[in-house]
Design brief:
This protein is mainly α and 395 residues long. It contains 18 helices and no strands. It is globular, with a radius of gyration of 21 Å. Bound molecules: aspartic acid (ASP). Residues 228-230, 264, 267, 305, 307-312, 341, 344-345, 348 line the site of aspartic acid.
Length: 395
């Protein structure tokens, strides 16, 4: 029963991802207007994504090495079962961002390819000017319909989320946790620390109210936790950012799908901690150069991680291989990864929300009037580029 209801709910969420991203991003690019604005917003977004991810690996790795919960691990398990496929080479990963067939990209849910197509389409429509008006109008109307569909599906959340969680815990016994409690607690604690301390500090630095932010990100966080998939959560985040946090669609439609695909702070924390712990188990000494290499590799690996359950473990193989830590170590943490995956996915999605709010705010277009207590702190003079909150154009 839980299996069927949870499965249907997840399928409906996933169903919405591709049409929603395609249509809302075309509308978003159109609303953003010129290439210059897009370039500035894009640079800020990607810059923040990278900075928060690199910081996340650093925190995860430091905690993994310092707390060193790896000590009493038992080395067991069949590694061949654990890592079913290899990481593709980096060059191919880059080439694969560019689609050669839109239908295939959509059928396979290749998010970056869809983003590239939508950006090109949106810009081309802007360049075509008046003649593209009717096409853009169709996209806007479609956007309305798709958003309504998303809201209908979200209305099923109480039943859907309950079924998903029940299904997960019915198949993932908690007894697996006990031998690995140290690693589990360390990683869960670090994820929580990032969520409750690091993000609020970033938000505060930009003059935003962290408590309000966290309260209003509740729905995306809950969905991310229950589905363990940033991709399946895209519809919910895209709905929450404009309606609950005042991020205009022009920013949300770009930052959310891109963030869900490349910005994974929670995954980066896991990869840092796991590398530190596994290195300890196998007695591999990591020097300062390795430390820097792990930060770089985990940042890249988290970018390359697919936004689906357990994908972070696959890209972890790349990090371990490159720094000479035995890849077999993944077998140790595989058994308890599901619950940690749920937690890190919630952090991943929250990180996208932080970036979207900060970028919108720095552009002076974070709406402050969406609810009684806005996330824009009143009468604050600090923060980057805090111009007129209500204005539609950038400073
Ligand atoms: N499940 C994560 C996500 O969808 C990826 C991971 O395995 O770390 O964001």
């Amino acid at each position: 029963m839980f299996y069927v209801v949870g499965g249907i709910f997840l399928a409906l969420l996933r169903l919405m991802v591709v049409p929603l991203v395609l249509v809302s991003l075309v509308c978003g690019v159109n609303a953003m207007g010129d290439l210059k604005t897009f370039g500035r917003v894009g640079a800020k977004t990607v810059g923040l994504f990278l900075a928060t991810t690199a910081a996340a690996v650093t925190v995860g790795l430091s905690m993994g090495l310092v707390v060193s919960p790896g000590a009493g691990f038992e080395l067991e398990g069949d590694f061949a079962e654990v890592v079913p496929r290899e990481m593709p080479p980096l060059a191919d990963t880059f080439i694969n961002i560019f689609p050669e067939n839109l239908v295939q990209a959509m059928a396979e849910g290749q998010m970056l390819q869809i983003i590239v197509f939508a950006l090109l389409f949106g810009f081309a429509a802007n360049l075509a000017g008046e003649r593209a008006n009717s096409v853009i109008r169709i996209f806007r109307d479609l956007n309305e319909v798709i958003l309504k569909m998303v809201m209908l599906i979200i209305a099923l959340a109480p039943i859907g989320l309950f079924a998903l969680l029940a299904r997960t815990f019915a198949t993932q016994g908690l007894e697996l946790l006990i031998p690995l409690a140290g690693y589990f607690l360390l990683l869960a604690g670090t994820l929580l620390l990032y969520l409750l301390v690091a993000y609020p500090l970033v938000l505060r630095a930009f003059g935003l109210n962290a408590l309000q932010f966290l309260a209003r990100m509740r729905a995306p966080m809950t969905f991310a936790f229950s589905t363990a998939s940033s991709a399946a959560t895209i519809p919910v985040t895209l709905n929450a950012l404009p309606s609950r946090l005042g991020v205009p669609n022009s920013i949300a439609s770009f930052t959310v799908p891109l963030g869900a695909t490349i910005n994974m702070d929670g995954t980066a924390i896991m990869q840092g901690s796991a590398t530190g712990c596994i290195a300890n188990v196998y007695g591999v000494d990591l020097g300062f150069a390795d430390f820097l290499l792990i930060i770089l590799l985990s940042t890249l690996a988290s970018i390359g991680t697919a936004a689906v359950p357990s994908a972070g473990l696959i890209t972890l193989t790349m990090v371990l291989t490159q720094v000479g830590v035995p890849v077999e170590g993944i077998a140790l943490i595989f058994g308890i990864d599901r619950l940690l995956d749920m937690m890190r996915t919630a952090v991943n999605v929250t990180g996208d929300g932080v970036t979207a709010c900060v970028v919108a705010h720095s552009e002076g277009i974070l709406e402050s009037g969406t609810a009684d207590s806005p996330i824009v702190s009143a009468a604050r003079g600090s923060g980057a580029g805090m111009a007129q909150p209500e204005s539609e154009s950038g400073p």
